C-alpha cells in the first residue's frame, strides 16, 4: 500500500495494489475509486484533500490481530 499527498494539486492518493487502472468512478463528489480490469479496487483519490481530511500530510498505520 502506498499513500501520497500532492500539495500542489491538493490530492491524497492511496494505492492498494500495483495494477493498471482500467476504470475510475466518482460515486461521491471529490472521491475517485480506481479499479483494475477484473473490477478489483486498486486505489482511491481524494480531491481537495486539505478541505476534507483533518491532516492530509499525516498518516497513522496500525496492524491488529
- Approximate shape: globular
Strand content: 35-45%
Q: Main sheet, how many strands, which sense, barrel?
A: 5 strands, antiparallel
Sequence of strands across the biggest β-sheet: 1-2-5-4-3
Write down the oligomeric state: single chain
Please identify the structural class as seen in this structure.
Answer: mainly beta
Domain module tally: 1
Q: SSE order in H/E notation? A: EEEEEH
Computed CA radius of gyration, to the nearest angstrom: 13 Å
- Compute the number of strand runs: 5
How many individual helices? 1
- Low-pLDDT residue intervals, each spanning 5 or more residues: none
Helical amount among residues, as a percent range? Answer: under 10%
**Distance between the terminal alpha carbons, to the nearest Å?**
18 Å
How confident is the prediction overall: mean pLDDT? 93
Characterize the structure shown.
The protein has 65 residues and is mainly β. It has one domain (2-51). It has one helix at 49-52; strands at residues 2-6, 11-15, 23-28, 31-35, 41-47. The protein has a five-stranded antiparallel beta sheet.
Label this structure with key terms:
65 residues, mainly beta, 5-stranded antiparallel sheet, 1 helix, 43% strand
Gist?
This protein has 65 residues and is mainly beta.
What's the helix and strand layout?
Elements: E1 2-6, E2 11-15, E3 23-28, E4 31-35, E5 41-47, H1 49-52
Antiparallel strand pairs: 1-2, 2-5, 3-4, 4-5
